[in-house]
Amino acid sequence: MATDQATTPPAPEIQSHDLSQVILLHPPPVFNYFKDLFSKKFHLLKAWESPLPLHEFLTNHAHSTQAMLCSGTGPPISADVMRLLPSLRLVVTTSAGLNHIDLTECRNRGISIANAGEVFSEDVADLAVGLLIDVFRKVSASDRYVRHGLWATKGDYPLGSKLGGKRIGIVGLGSIGFQVAKRLEAFGCNISYNSRKRKDFVSYPFYTNVRELAANSDVLIICCGLTEQTRHMINREVLLALGKEGVIVNIGRGAIIHEKELVQCLVQGEIGGAGLDVFENEPDVPKELFELDNVVLAPHMAVFTTESFKDLCDLMIGNLEAFFSKKPLLSLVMNE
Amino acid sequence: MDSITVLMTSPMSDYLETQLKDRFNLVKLWTYSSKTDFFKHNSHSIRAIVGNTKIGADAELIDSLPELEIVSSYSVGLDKIDLRKCQEKGIRVTNTPDVLTDDVADVAMGLMLAVARRVCECDRFVRRGLWPKGDFRLTNKFSGMQVGIVGLGRIGSAIAKRAEAFGCPISYYSRSEKPETNYKYFSNIIDLAVNCQILVVACALTEETHHIVNREVIDALGPEGILINIGRGSLIDEPELVSALLQGRLGGAGLDVFENEPEVPEQLFGLENVVLMPHVGSDTVETTDAMADLVIKNLEAHFLKKPLLTPVV
C-alpha cells in the first residue's frame, strides 16, 4: 500500500570500507581511463595521493590489505615494499611483463601474481609488424619527405628493401611472438626463433642462442620479457651478427637491448635499421636516433588501443573479484 | 641486337638503363631539349619503347614512330599507354605483373597499420620531444577491422591474404565475382564502403574506374573509415578526398599515389590522420631489378621472334 512505501527505510549506502581493499602505489595508464569502474567495486588505497612518504602510508593504512594493483610504470614492487604489506596475497599487474615485481619475494611469501595474459598480444604484434614494414619500406621517412615538399623538388625517394623472403628471428615465442610470426608468414617471410624452451606447437627452426639466431636472420624481433638473463642480451656481438642489412624491432622492454651499443651500431651503419617502442630510460630516447631516417620511434604505445584498455580493465577487475570471492584467478602467472 | 633502337621515356632505373645500353641502341627521351629535336633524329629508327608510370606511350608518340613494334612498360599499370592505338597498329605491349605484387601489397599493409595505429604520428611525437610531457593517446585496434578491397586482382588478393593473418574479415568489389575465394562480394562500391572500416583501392585505372571513389563513396566509408590507395591517384576524386579529410567526414587516409604526381595537396601536410608516400609501391632494390629484367626479357623475346613473357596486347 502507498503508506508502506513512504515508511520503508532507504537501502543502506554501501560504505567504501565494506568493499575489498586494493592498494595502488601509482595509477596504471588503464586505471586513468576507467577510474569509476574500479572505484565502484573496490576500496582503493591510492598511495600517490597521500602527502605521507610511501613507507608511512603503507604502515598506517595498508596493514590488512590483501591485494595490490600495479603496472610497469611507477615504483617497482620490491621486497622492501612488500614487507610493508604483511597481509598481501595477490599482485595484479596491468602489464604482460613482470620485471618490475620481485618474483623471489612473491614466491617465498606465496603471493600470487596475475598479469595481462594475452589481452593485448594482437595489438602488440600489430605494432611490431607496423614498425617493421615502416623500416623496410621507409613509410615514416618518405611521409616526412612528401610533407616537406621534397618529392616535387628533389625527385624520387631512395629504394627500400623487400620484406618477402626475409628471415625473421623472433626472440621469445610467447603469446606476442607467436602472433608476430603468424602475421609475417602471410608476407612470405621465413620464421625462426629463440626462446627459453623449444615450442612443440610450431615447426619454425629453433636456435638455442640469440647470437646464432641473429647470424641466420635478416630481422630480429624482441618479444620476450625482461629478466636477469635477458637484460642487455642484445649487445654489440649480437647486432654485428645480425649485420649491416639487419633490422631490429623491439616491443619487449628497452633494457633487453644494450641501448648505447645499439645507438653506436646504428650511427656507424653496422646494422641496417631499427623500429623501437621501448627504451632503457623512458621517456628519454637517445637524441642520436633523431638524426636517423632508418629508425622508427614509438612512445611505448603498443597496447594503447581502446579495445585493449577495455579488455584489460575487465581482466583486472575480473581477477580482483575472483580473488575476493575465493575463485580461481583469470590470468594467474604460473611459475616456470 | 645493338642495331635495334629502343626509346626509354624517362630515367626510371639505372640498372635498366645499363641493361638496355648493353643490348640495344638506346635513345633517352629526356636528353632532348624539344620534341621536334627528338623526332627529327629518331622517328624512323625507334622500334621499341620502354615507358613507365610517368611517361608511357600516348597516341602522339605512337603515331610519330612508324617503325614502332613493341611497348614494354616498366610498370604493371597500363593507364599511360594508348592500348587501343597499339591494338589498331599491331604494336605489342608488355608490362611487369607478379614481380611487384608482394611489394605493393606490403605497402598497402604498411599504410593501413600506419594510419590505424598512428605509427608516423608516434614517430613525430617522439622526435618532437613530446613524450616526457605525457603518454600518447589511444588508437583503434587494427586486428579484426573489416577490410574492403576495390579490385581483387593479383595485388588485391595479396593484400587480402595479408589482412586475413590479422583476423580482418575481407570483402570486395570487382568487375566479376571470384567464387573461388571465401571473401564477401559486393556488386557495387557504395555497399562495400558502407560495410567496411578500411577501403583499399587496388584496381587498374581505366575510363570506367576514373574517380570510382567519389564523394558518395567517401561519405559511405564515413568519419571512422580509412581509405588506402596503392592503385592510381585518379581512382579517387582527390579534391573531394581532401575536403572530406579537412572536414572530418573521413577518418583517415594512406596514399601512395596522387592525381598529379609529384604534386600532393598541401592541405594534407598538416593532418595527423594521413600517411603520404611518394609512389613507392614497387620501389625496392629487389623488385625494381626484377621489373627491369622482365622488361629486357620481353624485348629480347620479341626481337628473337619468341613468345612474349607478359603480353597485354
Question: Rg of chain B, please?
Answer: 21 Å
Strand content of chain A: 5-15%
> What is the topology, as strand order, of the major beta sheet of chain A?
7-6-8-9-10-11
Helical coverage of chain B, percent range? 25-40%
Contiguous uncertain segments of 5+ residues of chain B: none
Shape of chain B: elongated
Approximate helicity band of chain A: 25-40%
**First-last Cα distance of chain A:** 64 Å
| Average pLDDT score of chain A | 94
How many helices of chain A? 14
Oligomer: heterodimer
EC number (chain B): 1.1.1.79
InterPro entries (chain B): D-isomer_2-hydroxyacid_DH (IPR050223), D-isomer_2_OHA_DH_cat_dom (IPR006139), D-isomer_DH_CS1 (IPR029752), D-isomer_DH_NAD-bd (IPR006140), NAD(P)-bd_dom_sf (IPR036291)
GO biological process, one term (chain B): photorespiration
Domain D-isomer specific 2-hydroxyacid dehydrogenase NAD-binding (chain B): 109-281
Task: Tell me what you see in this structure.
- Chain B: Residues 109-281 form the D-isomer specific 2-hydroxyacid dehydrogenase NAD-binding domain.
- The complex is a heterodimer of chains A (336) and B (313).
- Chain A has 336 residues and is an alpha/beta fold.
- Chain A contains 14 helices and eleven strands.
- Chain A has helices spanning 2-7, 29-33, 35-41, 54-61, 79-83, 103-109, 121-137, 139-147, 150-154, 175-185, 210-215, 236-242, 259-267, 306-324, and strands at 21-24, 43-46, 67-70, 90-93, 112-114, 167-171, 190-194, 219-222, 247-250, 273-276, 295-297.
- In chain A, strands 7-6-8-9-10-11 form a six-stranded parallel sheet. Chain A has a five-stranded parallel sheet with strand order 2-1-3-4-5, with helices on one face.
- In chain A, helix 7 (121-137) crosses helix 10 (175-185).
- The longest helix of chain A is centred in the last third of the chain and has 19 residues, at 306-324.
- The termini of chain A are far apart.
- The model of chain A is unreliable at 1-5 (pLDDT under 50).
- In chain B, helix 1 (14-23) runs parallel beside helix 11.
- Chain B is elongated.
- Chain B is 34% helix and 15% strand.
- The model of chain B has no long low-confidence stretch (mean pLDDT 97).
- By secondary structure, chain B is an alpha/beta fold.
- Classes of the chains: A alpha/beta (336), B alpha/beta (313).
- Chains A and B meet through helix 7, helix 8, helix 10 and helix 14 of A and helix 5, helix 6, helix 7 and helix 11 of B.
